[in-house]
Automatic annotation (TrEMBL):
It is found in: Membrane. InterPro entries: Pecanex, Pecanex_C. It is a multi-pass membrane protein. The chain crosses the membrane at residues 42-64, 76-98, 143-162, 168-190, 248-273, 294-311, 373-394, 459-484, 490-516, 619-640. This is Pecanex-like protein. Keywords: Membrane, Transmembrane, Transmembrane helix. It comes from the Eukaryota. The keyword Transmembrane helix applies. The keyword Cell wall biogenesis/degradation does not apply.
Length: 1249
């Protein structure tokens, strides 16, 4: 992305014209009066007539009632029937027009460019005119449903705005007339949107309205208003209800404005938001990670509240509420896993795809096993016993004063527990007091993980104490269970002492004791009290910290009141008091976060030069003059739990429509994957384990669903969102942001690094001024550093290494040694039963080698696609020549023209010819020439048989006619039998086909000095005992002196050397790079070698090993002994993947967590060769908390801007870098299709105790 100035247009000219056509249509409910082209007058007249039709029919009913010819009910029915007939006529006409035009299948198909389509109108009722005005419905069921609703809406609407009813409400004819006229405008807008043409809503939740839910949105709100009026009509006089009816009749006039501003949510978002709010604040639950879980949890929790209302005994209510509250607060997803019988270590499918190994099965809490079931059962039984006994003996005790009552001691214990838990949690993070001051106790400096852990031991102890105070029941029961499993003869005295500590000091049990002794339980059979205590007993487990805070506030109010009664407050009951305190605290927290976000947008719009637009001064003055209105907008958004929407991220604030905490309607886990996604996939498991520890210690502060965190390590950005929280578990979503940083991404990433450095890289002693958080206004507040197993990525420019003649001269010798080592190792594997292409094959040390994986991949391919993987991957992204001078190098980072189809090289064509799948003969490239891309399936032209006579076959070995078979390929039966002098040499015998290279013996003899005999004997001496066990020295000596075995390996090794074109010393870096990529130029023996897949893979891996040896020796110094070289090659085989980034083996090795990976690349822009090394190690990932309301506000603007304004310009203002708001990163982290994270995990459930 190219960063642009602050005065870039918010909408380009095309989008501006599009917006000003769409917005009037949204305001009026669907009529299109601004088309952008000339249309006949009857198009506008027809729309006006249809728009006013409900008013006409309602006016008929109203007039007949005013003339006392009909009663109000009959007049409303008449209006509804007339509207039903008109709606049916419109739908029939739309269906007829669609059939006439032959486009039934496209009826009602969504098209965002419909406003730009120019329609040719013929007459007022032509099919084109009808389809333009009334497109019709997509589903037949909706035709019937919407038609019926149109009649019902008109009938009830007529009844709702009868002049007699309005006069009775307001007592004034003038006011009634104004309300009557304006109300019918609202009704006409809703009717037109329902039955004629649905306008695009500014409040858009789904990217596509598949089931045509949008037309129901506006009528739904009108029915809500009518329901309140009907309740007032048919109930006994209630002053509050009559007042509400009066207010709603006035608010009814402003519904079109609310719809246009997008404050009222669409139907799907309204239902989800309503269920979530009722579940959290009415029933004590938590927001859920999916819509299905939310629906099920809401239904079950509501059923619990209903059951509590009908249970006659208060003791039964207490026991039932505690048991159901505890069970519903657990991670119920583990129950389904247990029922399926799966005992996988990590239950989440997102991490099963990930690379980090799951926690050990013995790790507590990851699985629902016997220990976990015993723990939960013990906790439940103890809690029920405590509550039952306290309620039975002390629940009915009456006291004149709260201070002297039975709840007083528990109340003081709650106050102490809250202070201790808050203090111990506060000191766990890098900042204290809301991120204002640096924590002097937090470790300074991040030199290494071990040093950080040693400095952090004091905080670990404090965290352990906090966990004991907050979750001691769990810890003590775990201790008891461990004793039971380790020592069956445990003494009863130890158990008694443990349960005493457990019983009197745990905050959940202290809160249960407080609730069980409450006197308002005696008045439980009221709806409010039943709901209140259902929530209270549930939230004790669901969110212990929040419940402790709420209970402390209630206790403080009672202590402040003393012996005085608070009539309005005391009559509510403790359960309702806790509900109101929880709701008030949540809304207050949202208000403060939104206010901070508002101030950040306002201040930075002027102080940040790159954000200062020409209108910045005007907007600031306008906000200052309308400060009360601005505070009202912030307050309203907080009360509705709706995002505060900064229009185009400018200081123009609107109230976004309420939506669930997840902000997006789709399932969690959608992403835009790319090759870099594997790094986030690999680290997700280890990060989840680190987050579990951090959550348990309180290092990341108070955890609430909807909280957002940002992690930073090297070039990786991890976005963490809390989806769900319960007793002992937490559900999160981990997203990975792009690694190829744009300019905007780089600016914000640099500021993120500065914020983290100020928190974690500060000096040992802080002065008074250095103790403040200088980045307090930033959206990011650093919290803690987590130890995570991740890949450290190091990239080096190989100038001076790959182009050094001294290094290149040694490359040939290293290649021969690596090849000999791999050949002998291949024999060892084959002897032990680890066949090269077998799925169960493994390398030295019990790990499957990368060469085995590559060979297996090759062998499993269909015959027509037999080609080594490295060859495909190296040719997939470029079109090159077969000559050295014209070879087009490529880079891992540069892909200028996108993926190109792989060319069928000589090796591929030969392999196909030999397997009988093609009649094409092998052709060679002219030395120094450039091959052209043919039209025949991207095959090299030199491989085509008709071109052979043109001279493109020169360079091939000259053979006599009729003798090609004998010269080029010996039959296996004609090979001389090998007579080994040592019986053990048969183990190291190589396949017969590997000795059939079409090379002259004299040529092999001339290269005989290149074979390292000393290294061969040394390697043979090391592998011999591995095969034969404890072999005597005489047997090993005889094995080394076997001349036949040596000659066999000499022949095979030198044949590979010639076939790869490495018989002379390497002089060109491009040639080395080409061989490393597996793109071998044609040589005399290449066809033979490429047809021996296993041998070809061995030769290719040997060359890659030799280049890695060159790289290491140039960096660390030469190998001093054969023993060191042997150990190095063993390490390469066991702990390294040496290949290309584009190969599947690279991807698999990252997910399998190979300790090291190496790749060679070429930077086309700089003309340099690069080496990339990945090292798996435990590193510190810095994590900070984001302003959740700022994230929700920017996501709300993103949804409005892309789904309604269709402003998908990649250089739009709202996506430009903002160092304070982190605007670009926030947009990236949004769910697709609006955002583009490269990795997104499925909901991860893990324990947090």
């Amino acid at each position: 992305m190219v960063r642009m100035g602050p005065d870039v247009p918010l909408l380009n000219e095309y989008k501006q014209e599009f917006f000003w056509k769409r917005f009037p249509q949204t305001v009026l409910g669907g009529p299109r009066f601004k088309l952008g082209y000339c249309a006949p007058p009857y198009v506008y007249v027809n729309q006006v007539v249809l728009f006013l039709t409900p008013w006409l029919f309602g006016g008929i009913g109203t007039l007949l009632c005013q003339l006392q010819l009909l009663q109000e009910l009959h007049g409303a029915v008449l209006s509804g029937m007339l509207m039903f007939g008109a709606a049916a006529g419109v739908q029939a006409l739309a269906l007829y027009a669609a059939r006439r035009s032959g486009t039934v299948e496209r009826l009602g198909a969504p098209n965002i460019l419909v406003d730009e389509e120019e329609v040719e109108f013929t007459h007022c009722v032509s099919p084109e005119t009808v389809r333009f005005i009334a497109p019709g419905k997509r589903f037949g069921m909706n035709v019937v449903l919407h038609t019926v609703l149109a009649g019902v809406l008109c009938g009830f609407g007529t009844w709702y705005v009868f002049l007699g009813r309005l006069t009775a409400l307001y007592g004034s004819i003038g006011v009634s007339l104004v309300v009557f006229v304006m109300s019918w405008v609202t009704l006409c807008i809703a009717e037109y949107s329902l039955i004629v043409n649905t306008a695009t809503e500014t409040a858009t939740f789904q990217a596509q309205d598949i089931y045509e839910i949008t037309p129901l949105t506006r009528p739904l709100y009108i029915f809500i208003f009518i329901a309140v009026d009907l309740a007032d009509r048919f109930s006994d006089p209630v002053p509050e209800l009559q007042l509400a009816s009066q207010i709603l009749h006035v608010l009814f006039l402003f519904l079109p404005l609310l719809w246009a501003l997008g404050i009222l949510p669409p139907l799907d978002a309204l239902i989800l938001w309503g269920m979530e709010q009722a579940l959290v604040f009415g029933l004590g639950g938590s927001p859920m990670s999916s819509n299905l879980r939310l629906l099920l949890m809401f239904g079950v929790s509501a059923g619990v509240a209903v059951c509590n209302y009908f249970i006659p005994s208060t003791l039964g209510v207490v026991l039932f509420s505690i048991s159901t509250g505890f069970l519903l607060s657990l991670d119920l997803s583990q129950v389904a896993t247990l029922c399926r019988g799966s005992r996988a270590g990590f239950r989440d499918p997102g991490l099963r795809r990930g690379g980090s190994p799951p926690p050990l099965r013995s790790s507590f809490g990851w699985n629902l096993g016997c220990r976990e079931l015993l723990l939960y059962l013990s906790l439940l039984l103890v809690a029920m016993a405590e509550a039952g006994l306290l309620h039975h003996f002390l629940g009915s005790a009456q006291s004149q004063s709260f201070v002297t009552g039975p709840q007083a001691p528990v109340s003081y214990l709650l106050l102490v527990l809250f202070c201790l838990c808050w203090a111990l949690r506060e000191i766990q993070g890098a900042y204290v007091f809301g991120g204002v001051f640096l924590n002097p106790l937090y470790p300074k400096g991040m030199s290494s993980v071990q040093t950080f852990k040693q400095k952090n031991r004091g905080l670990y102890i404090a965290a352990a104490i906090r966990r004991v105070l907050l979750y001691l029941g769990e810890l003590v029961i775990r201790y008891i269970l461990s004793l039971l499993f380790s020592n069956v003869h445990i003494s009863l005295r130890c158990l008694t002492c443990t349960y005493c500590v457990f019983y009197f000091t745990v905050s959940p049990f202290a809160m249960i004791a407080f609730l069980s002794m409450d006197t308002s339980l005696q008045l439980l059979h009221r709806v409010s009290l039943s709901v209140g205590f259902t929530r209270a007993f549930r939230v004790v487990w669901q969110s212990s910290e929040d419940a402790l805070l709420q209970m402390v506030v209630v206790v403080l109010v009672r202590l402040a009141a003393g012996n005085n009664l608070l009539p309005g407050w005391d009559s509510l009951g403790t359960g309702v008091q806790l509900l109101l305190v929880g709701l008030l605290f949540d809304r207050l927290t949202q208000f403060l976060a939104k206010l901070k976000f508002t101030l950040t947008v306002l201040v930075t719009s002027w102080t940040e030069k790159k954000q200062r637009r020409q209108s910045a001064g005007t907007l600031l003055a306008l906000n200052a003059s309308l400060c009360p209105l601005l505070l009202a907008v912030v307050t309203l958004s907080a009360l509705l739990s709706a995002p505060l929407l900064p229009l185009f991220t400018l200081p123009i604030f609107l109230v976004g429509f309420p939506r669930p905490q997840r902000s997006w309607p789709g399932p969690v886990g959608t992403a835009c994957p790319c090759p870099d996604s594997i790094f986030y996939q690999q680290m997700s498991g280890s990060l989840a384990s680190a987050l579990r520890t951090a959550f348990a210690r309180g290092s990341l502060g108070s955890l609430a669903p909807g909280s957002h965190f940002l992690g930073r390590f090297q070039d990786r950005m991890v976005w963490i969102m809390i989806l769900e929280r319960g007793y002992g578990y937490c559900t999160v979503n981990i997203k990975g942001l792009e690694l190829q940083e744009t300019s905007c991404h780089t600016v914000e990433a640099r500021r993120v690094d500065e914020v983290f450095e100020a928190a974690f890289e500060r000096p040992e002693r802080l002065g008074f001024t250095q103790g403040f958080n200088l980045h307090w206004g930033n959206a990011l507040t650093p919290c803690a550093a987590l130890a995570v197993r991740v890949y450290s990525d190091a990239r080096n420019v190989l100038s001076g290494i790959i182009d050094s003649h001294d290094n290149l001269r040694k490359l040939q010798d290293d290649f021969m040694k690596a090849l000999i080592w791999l050949l002998l190792r291949y024999c060892v594997q084959k002897h032990k039963g680890f066949l090269w292409s077998n799925d169960e094959g493994s390398g030295v040390g019990g790990m499957k080698s990368q060469s085995s994986q590559l060979a297996q991949t090759t062998c499993n391919q269909p015959p027509e696609a037999v080609v080594v993987e490295s060859n495909v991957s190296s040719l997939r992204f470029r079109q090159d020549s077969s000559s050295l001078t014209s070879f087009g190098d490529w880079s891992d980072e540069d892909d200028l023209f996108g993926p190109q189809p792989a060319r069928r090289t000589v090796a591929l064509v030969t392999a196909e010819a030999q397997s009988g799948h093609t009649a094409l003969q092998t052709g060679a490239s002219l030395p120094g020439s450039v091959e052209m891309d043919s039209l025949f399936e991207n095959m090299a032209l030199s491989a085509l048989q008709p071109l052979q006579p043109l001279g493109l076959g020169i360079g091939m070995p000259a053979v006599d006619k009729g003798r090609s078979a004998e010269f080029l390929r010996e039959s296996p039966g004609s090979l001389l039998h090998l007579n080994f002098s040592c019986p053990q040499s048969e183990v190291f015998n190589l396949p017969t086909g590997w000795r059939t290279a079409p090379l002259l013996p004299s040529r092999l003899m001339s290269l005989r000095p290149l074979f390292p005999e000393d290294w061969f004997r040394f390697t043979l001496g090391r592998f011999g005992p591995v095969v034969q066990g404890d072999t005597s020295e005489d047997m090993t000596k005889a094995l080394k002196e076997d001349e036949a075995l040596k000659e066999l390996h000499v022949q095979v090794a030198l044949s590979c050397l010639i076939s790869l074109g490495a018989e002379s010393a390497f002089t060109s870096p491009s040639y080395v790079y080409r061989l490393y990529c597996g793109d071998v130029p044609w040589t005399e023996g290449l066809d033979w070698l490429s047809s021996r897949k296993e041998l070809y893979q061995l030769a290719l891996r040997a060359f890659r090993f030799s280049f890695k040896l060159l790289f290491d020796q140039a960096s660390l110094g030469p190998m001093e002994s054969s023993e060191e070289l042997f150990s190095t090659l063993e390490e390469y085989e066991k702990d390294w993947f040496i290949g290309l980034v584009t190969e599947k083996g690279w991807h698999d090795s990252v997910l399998q967590e190979k300790p090291f990976l190496f790749s060679l690349g070429h930077d086309l822009t700089m003309g340099t060769y690069t080496g990339r090394v990945l090292s798996l190690q435990e590193q510190l990932v810095q994590v900070g908390r984001l302003n959740g309301e700022g994230v929700r506000g920017q996501w709300a603007n993103l949804s409005w801007e892309l789904l309604y304004a269709t402003n998908d310009d990649e250089e739009r203002y709202s996506i430009q870098a903002h160092p304070f708001m982190l605007r670009n990163l926030t947009v990236q982290a949004a769910d697709p299709p609006l955002g583009y994270p490269i990795y997104s995990s499925a909901p991860l459930h893990f324990p947090s105790l």
